[in-house]
Write a structure and sequence with these properties.
Layout: H1 3-25, E1 34-35, H2 37-44, H3 48-60, E2 64-67, E3 71-74, H4 79-98, H5 102-107, H6 109-123, H7 128-146, H8 149-169, H9 179-190, H10 194-210, H11 224-230
Antiparallel strand pairs: 1-3, 2-3
Helix pairs in contact: 1-3, 1-8, 4-7, 4-8, 4-10, 6-7, 6-9, 7-8, 9-10
Length: about 230
């Protein structure tokens, strides 16, 4: 395969990965959803080999699970994995904030203001998918502002996996990420109060994790037989 053909294949595989990751992050594909290759090929006008490569890449990133006789399904992270992802997010998001200076904030001011405006608009309506997308974009925007490509790539993966965790474990149907908290973090960064911004982000992530039902010490889940008998 020539260099140009290889590059085209890589771009096409990445396009499919981006489409599937976006649908998962926006809760349009739920944990456990089957990812039928033929349907992806048709919907994205894609090559079947490219779809298979994309699914394999997503499986390596723990966003998709490929099971014998079932094919690919959207991953269903355990409570333990959820806790580990939040530990990773604290490390990565602290590192991202450490690199952001008032000069960075000034350079990105127009995009920051536009983002906060879109956040406020989203949280004023009842479109859950839009609210989730806008609030999640805050964390990804910080990654862009930092300018660290490696941290940004790691965060993008963690954010998709976090969306699966929220789908499975959030205690209520209201996203707990708040636009006011985001604005305060940006304000601290603009003022050069980097340590304060880090502390605010850690508290913010603590609050997000506290909204998840991850207590596996509760009584074991009843069997389907028992549930039906009690209904």
């Amino acid at each position: 395969m020539g260099k140009q053909a290889t590059t085209l294949k890589q771009r096409e595989v990445q396009r499919i990965i981006d489409k599937l990751s976006k649908a998962i992050a926006q809760h349009r594909l739920r944990p456990g959803s089957r990812l039928v290759e033929a349907q992806i090929v048709e919907a994205l006008n894609a090559n079947r080999n490219h779809v298979q490569s994309a699914l394999q890449r997503l499986a390596m990133q723990h966003i998709v699970t490929i099971e014998p006789n079932r094919g690919a399904i959207v991953a269903q992270p355990t409570a333990t994995e959820a806790r580990e992802i939040f530990i990773a997010r604290r490390a990565i998001e602290r590192a991202i904030i450490q690199q952001i200076t008032p000069r960075h904030v000034a350079a990105w001011q127009a995009k920051i203001e536009a983002h906060l405006h879109h956040e406020r608009q989203a949280t004023c309506n009842t479109d859950r998918q839009l609210i989730v997308r806008r609030l999640s974009d805050f964390h990804l925007l910080l990654g862009e502002i930092s300018g660290n490509r490696v941290l940004n790539e790691i965060l993008a993966n963690l954010m998709v996996r976090s969306s699966l965790i929220v789908s499975l474990y959030q205690r209520n149907d209201v996203p707990s990420c708040q636009s006011d908290e985001h604005q305060e973090i940006f304000a601290a960064l603009a003022a050069g109060e980097n340590l304060r911004a880090q502390e605010m982000m850690m508290a913010h992530l603590d609050e997000l994790e506290s909204q998840l039902a991850l207590d596996t010490s509760l009584a074991p889940e009843a069997s389907l037989h028992q549930i039906l008998l009690e209904t």
